[in-house]
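Researcher: Here's the sequence for the chain we discussed earlier.
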Amino acid sequence: MHAASGKRLGAAHPRQEGPADLRLVPPALAAWATAALTLDASPGVVTGLAVVCLGVAAVLMAVRRRGAGDGPGVRRNGWTRATIAAVLLSIATAAASAGLHGADLRQGPVPELARRYVTVTADVEVTADPRLTRPRVTGDRAAPQSVVVEAEVRAVEWAGGQRVAVRTPVLVLVTVGRDGSPGAAEGAAGGSPWLGLLPSTRLRVTGRLAPPAVGGDRIAAVVRVRDRAAPRIVGEPSGVQRFAGRLRAGLGEATDGLPGDARALLPGLVVGDTARITPELDEAFKETDLAHVLAVSGSNLTIILALLLGPPGLAQRVERRGAAPRLGLTLRATAVLGGVLTLGFVLVCRPDPSVLRAAACGGVALLALATGRRRSLLPALATAVLLVLLDPWLARSYGFLLSVLATGALLTLAPRWSAALRRRRVPARLAEALAAAGAAQAVCAPVVAVLSARVSLVAVPCNLLAEFAVAPATVFGFAALACAPVMMPVAKALAWCASWPAGWVAAIARAGAGLPGGGVDWPGGWWGALLLGCVTVAVVLVGRRLLGHPWLCGACGLLLLLAVVQPPPLTRVITGWPPPGWRMVMCDVGQGDAAVLAAGAGTGVVVDAGPEPRLVDRCLHRLGITRIPLVVLTHFHADHVAGLPGVLHGRQVGAIETTGFEEPPDQVEFVRREAARRNIPLARAAAGERRRVGGVDWQVLWPPGGAAAAFGPAPDGPNDASVTLLVRSGGLRMLLLGDLEPPAQRALLRSPAAALLAGVDVLKVAHHGSAYQDPDLIRVVAPRLALVSVGADNPYGHPAPGTVAALRAAGAVVLRTDRDGTLAVTGADGRVRVAAD
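Model: Thanks. This is the structure I predict for it:
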């Protein structure tokens, strides 16, 4: 123990710290802005800017030295000159660093070969953990998933050229299979050897170069690998990376037996490994602004260092807390041990922007601890920002920006807001938690709006509820990580302990994302961010006045709660939606199909699920549907089945009925997997089947005998095997054709069900109103109302003008979801009405 006059070295109290030390803030901001702006600048511009700034800084420093002894007034002016000189030096250094990095990106043959889309053979070194692209629904099927590998080309050769040694960053894209179904990420991950590659591994790949999709990024080209074979490894990873890889793999093994959400979330929470995170869970974290939990950040390092140093709040008074004094460690030994933990944290979690920022702040704090001086957190944050001098690409990283903004808010706004809440008799712990979550959300929300064009209204309560579970999950998770290589049973026990808080965090994200008013659409881009910033300032100013009126605060909180939860009975009274006595609703789910048949209070039969879970879930919630006796999936194309998790979310489902033609296989497997997860039985529909639930009954008209009987060996494709329903509700007859195309439509007219087709009241137009329609079927059906489920600005030209004209010629009123929104059919005994949401 280093002691003087009975007081521990490093003791400090907040009131003894004096005003905030902002000297490093202007140079840090100047370096950040310069790096972001000069990465694409020409060498001449960069050189000129650096020379001018260095010259002016030299003049200012020379003037300051000559006037250093002239008295207090000159000293204050000299201090101003020093600040300006520091800013100019930062600008010059950042410009030089950004210019060199930008020049490195543009030099060599790779950028030119990418502009010509040349096929090359390249030796590359992996620089980050490979990851899977998120499944995307494009049209009627999900796009194949790809493994994304960040790498650096070390040598390249191409036809007619020679082998050239280079150092050029690229992105390697490897298609891992056609299984792009939602929720299949984990299965694809387990089957691709590319995902097991460690940073520093050297590979030889053959692929086609292409320019990056977005300019101004830190890659010079994209390498699209043509074959799906195992990677050709020409150099093993370093020993450090192999050790870090073993730790990460051990954590994965320790979590293998955990429940689904905990198993997926825990590796991401501890080391940022998101390979097991399903698209549905990932979307829930984004909807609730909890995505920072999956991106390892300063909070993770803070939790680990707090075990050694003690809670940050106590460290402001006496910096010796936690395990260090109990182990008898000196200040310097504590700092060294903390540095080792920080280095290990970076190696295991990988040097991502948020990890580097956290490590830099921790390093400055540990240096202050080692020298026995009090810590200044704002200079530590400014020092972290100066990382852009070493890696200028961080200046353009949204993750780095969000990390710095959140930390800055916690250091500046949160203490003031916490004090204001405590003055109004809010308990201290609650005030600190509210202030921290509110401050971080206030400064980060505009940037999030730029990325997602959406504002979360549940971010603050979700972050508050998740905060209590993040620390124990992280501590137990890191303990499992450390024990896994040597004591796997102990690691599994620790992982089981961590699964409870991790599962809680996942449950909070899912619950928040499931609220219909949890988020509002917002203009994207920086103009949208500016608008949100102005709204945030206005809300803060109004909130300050409201804090003095508890009853008014409670009323505003209740109104916000009702807006977020949107209970269907109250929503119906206020908005009139859904209209009373609705028979069928065609949900607006974009380029896809999802319809609901009313079957009693809170009960509905769902026909197709659309391409996205969130959209169909929101539609069902607004209708107040909590029980679904049957889900009918007309066929297995992704625009009809990919939204199935949204249909099943939080609802009691009796069974799922599908067509007998099981193509494409990846979507068939997806439906089976979702049904098995919830123990929902699967059945096949066939012509002649009749069912009734509540006030609705329906008859299956197609396909006959399990699809194949009507087409010989097999139907022409999944569309022609669509389940076709004739629905009767309240005296209305409604025909739902799925995606039937002309061959099946003509066969349907020749089938025994043809007599039932004449003169229906409502027609769900086949295949989103495409041009492929049989005119005889339209003439026979002669609907009074034709509904087209279609996405706005779709690339297929749906609905086709000829199809719309034919329907109108047959006497139908044509409505479409892309223009009219969600459509509700009402009426009875042949009197058809329709309401749009």
